What does this fold into?
Amino acid sequence: MIMTIARKEFTEMFRDGRVRSGGLALLLLVGGSLLYGMRQTQQLATERDTARQLTRAHWVSQPAKNPHSAAHYGIYAFKPRATLATLDDGVDPYVGVTTWLEAHKQNEFQFRPAQDATSAQRFGTLTAATTLQLLVPLLIILLGFAVFAGEREQGTLRQVLSLGVKPSVLGAGKALGVAGVLSLVLIPAAVLGVIAITGMPDGGSDLVRLGVMIVSYIAYFVAWLALTLAISAFASTARVSLAASLGVWMLVCILAPRLMTDVVRSVHPTPSASAFAAAMKRDLDGGFDGHATGAQREKLFEEAVLKKYGVDSLSQLPVSFAGLSLHEGERHGDEVFDKHYGALWTTFAEQERVRELAAVVSPVLAMRSLSMALAGTDVAQHLHFQNAAEQYRRSLMTAMNGEMTMKSKGQDFDYKADPSTWSNVAPFDYEAPSAAWVLQRHTPAMLFLGVWAAGAVLLAGWSIGRMTP
Amino acid sequence: MLQATALSKSYGEKVALQPLSLTVKGGEVFCLLGANGAGKTTTINLFLDFIPRSGGSATVNGLDVTQHSLETKRLLAYIPEQVNLYRNLTGLENLTYFQQLSGQAPMPRTALLALCDRVGLPSGAPDKRIATYSKGMRQKVGIAIAIARNARALLLDEPTSGLDPQASNEFSAVLSDLRADGVAILMATHDLFRAKETGTRIGIMKHGAMVDEFAAADIGHADLEQLYLRHMRN
Ligand SMILES: Nc1ncnc2c1ncn2[C@@H]1O[C@H](COP(=O)(O)OP(=O)(O)OP(=O)(O)O)[C@@H](O)[C@H]1O
Ligand SMILES: [Mg+2]
It folds into this structure.
């Protein structure tokens, strides 16, 4: 009987020209955004590979020079573009995918397409994720708003309800009918997506993430479908049903995320870029207490070194004082970076937590954070990369300063290291976090999404059960 | 089969149905007569549990219609004053849909077409979309749906409204067949002639109350009209 209802719903909707053209438009949108994302991913992957080889070649081909100059020469670190970023590029356009590793500085990401892009481009990048999160719910509403309210208005609901059909059967049949029409759009899109992902180099490694992503999106759509049916069962006319559903969509998809950005900013404010830089500079220059001047700290360090090596003057040192003091400078810098970036990143993590909790108000927020996380383009994974890059920078600096310290002596600044030194440094090889790492962090989001879907289904059941003609 | 006991309905101050008691046994056709607003549709809606009652009870085959909302409906077939169907589906598709939602085995196309023929739907019409149907044709599909349900009791709310005289006559024949099969029929109508013709019992309603009730056989055509008008004038 469920299938009978579903088939009739499907036939009716399919015979409606508006539904056909709407579905086709969405199919084109999803397909287009997928193809665009694929091209983008391939292009970025190629660019990144070329740049990675180039920066390594530049590093290795340095002539014999002072290790500290080499440290200043620096290296670019590139965040690998996960294949799933094709579907959801998350915060990547805002935080960038490249960082510059050099002496004395922990640099934030440099390359930010969003900064360079013209505003038209910025709004033009419609990713598959945006389509799935915002437009598919809209299509669900357009397909489903009339299923009960329209029948009520036409008067057919009187006859249907006089038959003694179980509300659960009626609801399931209607839902399945809408899902059938929807799947005409989504199944081709999903097939295209899976082919696109698995067809990419090392795309197969993301299958767990892709699987969880597909299940999450299905749960998300179930929530929307059930919500639409619940409203339709309740509304007196199709028009009221459409207006109410669209109202919910606006609230949940547009307003809630905007509001959330403001709430997150006011609950866990981040310092402005200039304030952050100023605070860091103060600590770098003056030590943590802010009183000891650079000269004073240098004096103390000098005394400690002399004492340690049991010599009277720096020129008598068996190792390079420059190397030691550069190392000391890095050590102090690292402490300062850890303090400031640590605080900033804790704030980011707290913001993320608030955003995730806010999924209580809007399933879009849960879906968005989950989708980005699974695609590997969320803030947490951005920071994971930043951390790895910074660790690499520190090990690189330790190596360069160690080379200087051990191979040179006293106050000799003219030491030149052999070019083989450069190739002895292992290239930066970043491994993105595993799917388990991501899933563990996003259990709340998955839970919220599940609760939304289950809640919406219960609401629909209740609303359909108490339906009158 | 159908039984109302002191069944009543009010909308706030407004009394739509005063405590009403009636019984329709299998093989009986109970015709409800009465002016517009007399409470006929209200009575039928209460049997369908479409509106909450204010007092009394209504049962179908001994089951209370509110407590056993779904079970009692499955015993019923209902033809509203205005049969509404899915405009984008054909007459036959509508019939098939409602027949299958009744929880019965699907009927073969030939049987469904025979049914359409029996209610007087022109040949060729069953495969046309409902959007192209006249009101009477829709009403005929409604009747076909009711027959296809194989119900134990029929609730008919002016089922022949909009039917041409020939179709009305054919409908009377259908009702006679069903009655002979032991189906209980409660029909609201304005057609005194049909009421006398097909009814076994007749009730006259006024301002939400049943003011008279008698066996159809006990009265002539002319007398029924006189009696009806007398009740309305008082
Ligand atoms: N939703 C409602 N709210 C208030 N009053 C109502 C409502 N529905 C019906 N009524 C009133 O109940 C009374 C009985 O109406 P009902 O529809 O049962 O009449 P009827 O006998 O079927 O009339 P008709 O011959 O016109 O079909 C009427 O006076 C009507 O105004
Ligand atoms: Mg009426």
